[in-house]
């Protein structure tokens, strides 16, 4: 199985590149942000609870997102592999993911981390906010908080995968095609 963590701060291009990667490599895309927005659109109890955190740019509690990922992994038991987008976002989530995958006799192959500077992130998120309608992309205070939360709570996940020799940095600036080519080069080297 090819199991990839597509990593990076908000606005790094994870969703865009995940869509390209799943098409080329036939992987299942698991985005915790997308799943949470789906729950919110369905007005489920989980979605309404998560909204309180998402609206402020804070992380939803680990137990909630880990439970969601577990049920999605069970749902796609016959997948060729997964691309995890926006998950894990804390070291506790990374540890839980390792446990879940070990139970399925598989593991993370690599973490591909898209690197993009703060100014560009803000520009991209504000641009997306104009078309996506996402509340958390509309407010500069929330955008700044999401980047701060990334630096404080999520960036340490890099150390977790570095210690396993699985961290690969990818320059996330330039055209979507150029970034995709860089990702493919690394993915092809994993196989
Ligand atoms: P995203 O679409 O990945 O930018 O996520 C949007 C929001 O959903 C985040 O700002 C968090 O509030 C929440 N979220 C998404 N994924 C996670 C996660 N793995 N852990 C905690 N919160 C998450």
Number of helices: 9
Distance between the termini: 10 Å
* CATH fold group: Rossmann fold
**Approximately what portion of the residues adopt beta-strand conformation?**
5-15%
**Largest sheet descriptor:** 5 strands, parallel
Question: Number of folding domains?
Answer: 1
* CATH class category label: Alpha Beta
Shape: globular
Which runs of at least 5 residues are low in confidence (pLDDT < 50)? none
Which whole number gives the mean pLDDT?
Answer: 96
- Radius of gyration based on Cα positions: 16 Å
Structural class from helices and strands? alpha/beta
Across the major sheet, the strand order is 2-3-1-4-5
Q: Can you tell me the CATH superfamily?
A: P-loop containing nucleotide triphosphate hydrolases
List the ligand species. Answer: adenosine monophosphate
Please name the CATH architecture. Answer: 3-Layer(aba) Sandwich
Secondary structure: elements and pairs:
Layout: E1 4-7, H1 14-25, E2 28-31, H2 32-41, H3 45-54, H4 62-75, E3 82-85, H5 91-103, E4 110-115, H6 118-132, H7 140-154, H8 157-163, E5 167-171, H9 176-190
Parallel strand pairs: 1-3, 1-4, 2-3, 4-5
Helix pairs in contact: 1-9, 2-3, 4-5, 6-7
What would you say this structure looks like, in words?
There is one protein chain. With 191 residues, the chain is of the alpha/beta class. It is built from 9 helices and 5 strands. It has helices spanning 14-25, 32-41, 45-54, 62-75, 91-103, 118-132, 140-154, 157-163, 176-190; strands at residues 4-7, 28-31, 82-85, 110-115, 167-171. The chain has a 5-stranded parallel β-sheet with strand order 2-3-1-4-5. Helix 1 crosses helix 9, helix 4 packs parallel to helix 5 (91-103) and helix 6 (118-132) crosses helix 7 (140-154). The termini are close together. Adenosine monophosphate binds at residues 10, 32-33, 36, 53-54, 57-60, 65, 86-87, 89, 93, 136, 146. Adenosine monophosphate is lined by residues 10, 32-33, 36, 53-54, 57-60, 65, 86-87, 89, 93, 136, 146.
